[in-house]
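Structure first, sequence second, as always.
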């Protein structure tokens, strides 16, 4: 980092900064100018409080040189991460297609959807057994019963399964069924939950928070990775804006931006972004064109009867058509679908 001293800073002020930085193991290199001095400082700033340094006499500003997300960022790992989930990989040449209902409602419902999406080309099944609903009166999922249904359907069709975990106390149990754990948008900054899933080896699909910046999202990934689990996959699912015509606003720019800043794969979730089934396909195709490593699509065999997110769910036929429409786009950007 570079510490910029103000024009009133005395030699004693500069020495005090250097001595404070030395206490934290930093090497300092002051450059004395005509009116101002800047101090280059090299070291590990994890234990150092920038705010306290800023409060010291004579300091005008501090400019960090390295990004705060060391493990999630590209500065220390240049190559793209490819993450294994069951019998498939996310982040390689092949596009990932995660599909399934918002919630697991019954064995018949989930197994039928699983068979249909697999036949169309899905590579991972999704479904919620623990649902974070906006209303306390809405269906909140079948809980462990739902996980059992999901596991057996996944095994039957031969696809890995991804499901959300809401509570630190349930991480071990959910991980004993699932191949990939989802951290939902509402929990992106539930730091205890992030640390808990970080202690596991199962891959984590980390959704972007409803109103989170890309840096906050990458710092959430850093929480998980700093506990030892480097298998993190980002998922852009739309953010809150002033635009009411869709449920959220799909941030297409998040794809190239996170690709530049991070080596982690990124999946697009056009279903929760759009909130309306007829817009899902266009957003999915746009995301593939923009370089997403895959898509996550909500599919229901009878959307009008779905117990959650029916309005945004595609029927199996619509999903099949979307996969066919995505193929030439995948080809054009050099991905296999
Ligand atoms: C979901 O995937 O069903 C879900 C609840 O997503 P989000 O956390 O993005 O709202
Ligand atoms: Mn949903």
């Amino acid at each position: 980092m570079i510490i910029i001293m103000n024009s009133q800073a005395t030699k004693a002020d500069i020495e005090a900064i250097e001595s404070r930085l030395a206490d934290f193991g930093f090497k300092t290199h002051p450059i004395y100018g005509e009116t101002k001095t800047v101090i280059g400082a090299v070291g590990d700033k994890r234990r150092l409080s920038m705010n306290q340094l800023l409060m010291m006499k004579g300091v005008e500003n501090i400019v960090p040189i390295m990004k705060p997300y060391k493990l999630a960022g590209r500065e220390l790992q240049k190559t793209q991460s490819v993450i294994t989930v069951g019998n498939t990989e996310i982040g390689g040449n092949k596009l990932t297609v995660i599909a399934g209902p918002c919630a697991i409602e019954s064995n018949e419902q989930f197994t039928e959807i699983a068979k249909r999406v697999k036949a169309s080309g899905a590579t991972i099944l999704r479904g919620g057994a623990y649902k974070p609903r906006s209303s306390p009166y809405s269906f909140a999922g079948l809980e462990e019963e739902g996980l059992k249904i999901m596991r057996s359907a996944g095994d039957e069709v031969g696809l890995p399964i991804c499901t959300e975990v809401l509570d630190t106390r349930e991480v071990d149990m959910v991980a004993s069924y699932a191949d990939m754990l989802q951290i939902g948008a509402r929990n992106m900054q539930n730091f205890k939950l992030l640390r808990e899933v970080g202690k596991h080896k199962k891959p984590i699909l980390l959704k972007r928070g409803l109103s989170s910046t890309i840096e906050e999202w990458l710092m959430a990934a850093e929480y998980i990775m700093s506990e030892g689990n480097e298998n993190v996959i980002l998922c852009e699912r739309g953010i809150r804006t002033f635009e009411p015509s869709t449920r959220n606003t799909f941030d297409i720019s998040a794809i190239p931006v996170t690709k530049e800043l991070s080596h982690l794969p990124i999946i697009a979730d056009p279903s929760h972004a759009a909130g309306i089934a007829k817009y899902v396909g266009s957003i999915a195709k746009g995301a593939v064109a923009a370089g997403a490593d895959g898509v996550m699509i909500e599919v229901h065999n009878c959307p009008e009867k779905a117990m959650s997110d029916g309005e945004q769910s595609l029927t199996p036929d619509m999903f099949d058509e979307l996969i066919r429409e995505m193929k030439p786009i995948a080809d054009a950007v050099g991905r296999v679908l």
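Margin note: The first helix runs from residue 11 to 23.
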